[in-house]
Automatic annotation (TrEMBL):
Keyword Transcription regulation tagged: yes
UniProt name for this protein: Pur operon repressor
Location of the Phosphoribosyltransferase domain: 113-243
Family: Belongs to the purine/pyrimidine phosphoribosyltransferase family. PurR subfamily.
Keywords carried by this UniProt record: DNA-binding, Transcription, Transcription regulation
Top-level taxon in the UniProt lineage: Bacteria
Subunit and partners: Homodimer.
One GO biological process term: negative regulation of DNA-templated transcription
Entry keyword Transcription: yes
Gene transcribed to yield this protein: purR
Molecular function terms from GO: DNA binding
Domain Bacterial purine repressor N-terminal intervals: 5-74
């Protein structure tokens, strides 16, 4: 890369860091890239670090030593996240979103890149302190949300299928009980999709009793994997505590009341904000 003026270098460095979250970048790499002294690079990084933290973009960690460098961790402060989620809750309360069975129509919202980016950063912030190897979800509506989260954590995504695909090769399949309708269903995961003893973050779009997530946890047991965390976009609050199959999870929104006759709903920020 040709030598840049400092103002241009700051812009390019910022973009470089934003596109490589959770990646350790050495000062030498930056110095070679911009044909600048390490002292100048350090001053630039100090400016970027200050702006990131003041504006709530995340954190810039500096690691000292010969193998050191800088690492960008995307984060969103709670006040900003709560403001965004409050607006999302109002959108979810629209009567036309009520579906039979007390579910909410959210597919259109989970197709909006800006919204997905915000939700991904919220989950990335919630689970930032945990060692995670991979993000997992079950097809289909949770896939965009899982990718948004994985993008912020710079991790691969594993998708659990409802049935075995011939293009996936050999797979592990299990039966599980759907928590909402008590039906026996099947899910499968290709053997090559997940390494044994991986630490997995499960992300899903909606949780009622938690049967689907519990099924994924049982599937992970077959891979000797560990559940590092569970995140759901919306949880249903209309499930009795004794019927809930999960206790340890992070929710961004909570459906607390739904009247199928009047299509009136109440959606509040989830336990992440408690």
């Amino acid at each position: 890369m040709k030598k840049l003026k400092r103002s241009a270098r700051l812009v390019e460095m910022t973009q470089y860091l934003l596109s490589r979250p959770h990646t350790l970048i050495s000062l030498t790499a930056f110095a070679d890239r911009y044909q600048s002294a390490k002292s100048s690079i350090s001053e630039d990084l100090a400016i970027i670090k200050e702006v990131f933290e003041e504006e709530g973009f995340g954190e810039l960690h500096t690691l000292a030593g010969a193998a050191g460098g800088v690492k960008y961790t995307p984060k969103m402060n709670k006040d900003t996240a709560l403001e965004i989620m409050t607006g999302i809750c109002k959108e979810l309360e629209l009567p036309e979103r009520v579906l039979p069975g007390g579910y909410l129509y959210m597919t259109d919202m989970l197709g909006q890149p800006e919204l997905l980016n915000d939700l991904g950063r919220m989950f990335a912030t919630a689970f930032a302190g945990r060692h995670i190897d991979v993000v997992m979800t079950v097809e289909t509506k949770g896939i965009p949300l899982a990718y948004a989260t994985a993008n912020c954590l710079n991790l691969p995504v594993v998708i659990v299928r409802r049935d075995n695909k011939v293009t996936e090769g050999s797979a592990v399949s299990i039966n599980y009980v759907s928590g909402s309708n008590k039906r026996i269903q099947t899910m499968s995961l290709a053997r090559r999709a997940l390494k044994e003893q991986s630490r997995v973050l499960i992300i899903d779009d909606f949780m009622k009793a938690g049967g689907t997530i519990q099924g994924m946890m049982d599937l992970l047991y077959e891979f000797k994997a560990t559940v590092a965390g569970v995140g759901v976009f919306v949880e249903s609050g209309e499930v009795e505590r004794e019927e809930r199959l999960l206790e340890d999870y992070v929710s961004l929104a909570k459906l607390t009341a739904v009247d199928l006759k009047t299509k009136q709903t109440t959606v509040i920020p989830g336990n992440y904000f408690a």
